[in-house]
Structure formats: structure tokens, C-alpha cells
Amino acid sequence: MSDLNKLTIAEARDALAAGKTTAVELTEACLGAIEASSALNAFVHGTADKARDMAKAADARIKAGEATAMTGIPVGIKDVFCVKGVPSQAASKILDGFVPEYESTVTQNLWNAGAVMLGKLNQDEFAMGSTNEASCYGPAVNPWQGADGQKLTPGGSSGGSAAAVAADLCLGATGTDTGGSIRQPAAFTGTVGLRPTYGRVSRWGVIAYASSLDQAGPMTKTVRDAAIMLGAMASVDPQDSTSADLPVPDYESLLTGDIRGKKIGIPREYRIDGMPDDIAALWDKGADMLRDAGAEIVDISLPHTKYALPAYYVIAPAEASSNLARYDGVRYGRRAKLGQGDGIVEMYEKTRAEGFGPEVQRRIMIGTYVLSAGFYDAYYNRARKVRALIKRDFDNAYADGIDAVLAPTTPSAAFPLGAMDQTDPVQMYLQDVFTVTLNLAGLPGVSVPVGQDKQGLPLGLQLIGRPFEEGELLNQAMVLEQAAGFVAKPDRWW
């Protein structure tokens, strides 16, 4: 078989089971593609030797009849996941040299299922950003090109994961979604990104940004692949008190393609001023596709949506300022060179000033400010109350019989690297306008590529589901995926 790296997870699983290829051959195809794609800067720590050993073990497992759906499947791991014996620094200078002596629960679940690790993937530093430009490794690059060969952002923070999947460097990848960091890059690269319900996937061993919002999920080429990969990643975890003690369904078996009678809500508050015609037309088209498949399309109101973005950018930095206080140069990671007479205070100051990039420093400062004694009630407590109201909006919609909400994933297609003014963070934060609501509410959401803009760049729509009903959500997403028939791939330039 040729072009093995272009297979989907489902196709590769079936080929492995039928003896048409081996995990070693599949892995070598991906390693070759990675080596030929350094211009994308998607992989930042290679693990080729480890991948070959894991592939051999997977082939032995398949031969013994002990394979699962992920056995022998080569995947990339976002740098925010701790992997034992592999550099894991969340794309930050402050964790330079950090090699964990333990394994995150998500990656351990994948290895238990027989998946093969190709390497660590680029991201925004500590998962803070929407363009992958806040990375100590430099930005990942979108495989899709803009006008006149412009290099585009793959989105963030899981930009490296999205670029790697879109460019067929791996069959699937892990990502994390705190305010849209799986779904937005998926929309920018024409891939599928699933953010599960908060608690569905363990956060243990995932380097924290905002603990009440972070959630790991799969980034794949198809909805079916997302269902397969989520089944391997999800589990209850005694090491994570927020993980849900619920059985993990066979998500793939729930992909029936039947959504007759389902009610899909269209929130009027998401029709923001200045929405591009391409996005608005695609949204209407997506609603028509679901209607044609037998779903009922219902206009709904989520009245507190307009407060979501400011509430998110109070809560997330507040939690970040607390989580990132542990990086001080004392126990692990980077320590600044000290001058004669420097004490522990100078060590903290110099280490954090050198180790944290501008975006991380900005969010730490914002978070420290909103948690300070004089402003705690005015900002943080008020944001928490708004968060509760946003969650109640969704609860009310679902109580009225709505099965899922359909909305755009992003307010635009991918834009050129450097287009966002880094001195105006609000411009970048507005990229999260459609995605942050479900993070605040703890709900599952999936972005599906549905069409292209006037330049031929991919555009995505997202479905927001009921809590812990990822199976239903993925089934609805598969219907949308099949109706859209999005098969476009980026022209290879890299």
C-alpha cells in the first residue's frame, strides 16, 4: 500500500487487521513524512526510535489477536502532555530541560491501547494563544496557503496538532481545549476537533493552564476517527478528582447516521455584527444539511453569550496566575543565571522574566490583578456568576428538548502569520468568540470542516452537545460531515 500516512485511523485499523500492512510500515511512512515536512514546524521533539519499538510491539500484539482499534496507529502528542522520558515543556522556555518521570493518564491510555508515539507537537506556550505564535519553538505553519503563497496560522493553541493531522504527518493527535484550542485549529486546517465534556478525559499529567476549563481531546481526519480515539483516551482516573466516574461507551458503534427527530438549536446571539458572508452562508447551509437529514432546526436564545468572552478572560488568567506560580527555577526547568549578591527574590524575578513569553506574562498579570484583594469581587467573583448564567442558558435550552447547538467555529478562515497585532491582545482574543461558551459551561463540542471561503481556505461549523453525550454529538457531526462532503486537501508546498 502506498501513501500509508494518508490513511484515516479507521482505514489503517482495517488494513492492519487484514494484514495489508504492518504497524512498522505505517510508522515508517509517517516518520518519512515528518522528516520531509520540517517547514511546517509541527513536530518539536521527535521520538523515532521509541516509535519503531512501539510499532514492533503493536505488530506482535496484532499477530497474537490482542489488538484494539488504536493498536499500531501512529499519533502525535501535544507538548502539554507529560510523557515519561520525553521532553515535555508546554512550548515554554521556563520548562527547558524538563523530562517527566511519569506519564499523563491520556497518553498512558493510548499506549495501553497500542498506539504508537511519533513525537511531541508544537503549541502556544502553556496553551495560551489562538495563532501558535506564542511558542518558544517558533510558530507551526498551516499546510494550507493563503493568497500569493502567504504562510497562514494553523490556529492555537493546538496548532501543531492540527497542522500535523492536516498534512498527513500522523493519523491522529492529542490536543487540549481551554477556550477553543482544539476546535479553532481544526476549523483552520480542515480537520475534525473534539472537545469532550469536562471530566470525560483525565487532566492528570497535562501541564495546567486553567484547571476548571482545560480538557484534552482528539484531533483527527474524520468524525469516525475522533470517536475511535476518544474511546481510547477517556477513562475515570483516581488521580484526577474532576474526572467523571462513568463508563466509556463504544463511541464508534453509536455512529448510526440517523438523526431523525433530533432538535438542533440555532442561537440568535451568535449572529454577531461584522460576521463574514462566507461564515453566515455556511452556517445556513449546515442547518439545511441537518434539516434534510431529518433534524428539526429551532431558533433559540442563549442570552448571556455576549458576556462569555470577558468572563473567560477573567477566569482563565486568574487560574493561570495560580497554576504558573509553581515555575520559579527552584525545583525543575529553567533557572536564570544570577549575579553576585542576588538572592531568592532576584532568582524568581529573573527566571520568570526570562522563562515566560509576553502572552503568558500578560495573562499572569491580568490574573494576579483580578484576584487581588481590592478587585476580587469586582472581577473574579462577578465572572464566576456570569459563568453560572451561561451554563444555565444551555441547561434551559436542553431542558426544552434541544439535542445540540449548531454555530460557526471561528469568525474567519485562517489568516497570515503575523497578521494579529501582538500589542493588541483583544484582537486575538476575539478569535474565541464562538468557542468559549461551552468551555465555561463544561459541555462537549466538535468542529467539522464543512466548506471553503472565497480563497479556498477551509471553514468549520461546530456542534455543542449535552454533557457526557459525546456519542450523540459525534453521530450528529458525522451526518454533517457526510452531507458536506469536504474532501479538499492542501496543495503540498512544504
TrEMBL record:
Residues 25-474 form the Amidase domain. Keywords: ATP-binding, Ligase, Nucleotide-binding, Protein biosynthesis. It comes from the Bacteria. It catalyses: L-glutamyl-tRNA(Gln) + L-glutamine + ATP + H2O = L-glutaminyl-tRNA(Gln) + L-glutamate + ADP + phosphate + H(+). Transmembrane segments: none annotated. Allows the formation of correctly charged Gln-tRNA(Gln) through the transamidation of misacylated Glu-tRNA(Gln) in organisms which lack glutaminyl-tRNA synthetase. The reaction takes place in the presence of glutamine and ATP through an activated gamma-phospho-Glu-tRNA(Gln). This is Glutamyl-tRNA(Gln) amidotransferase subunit A.
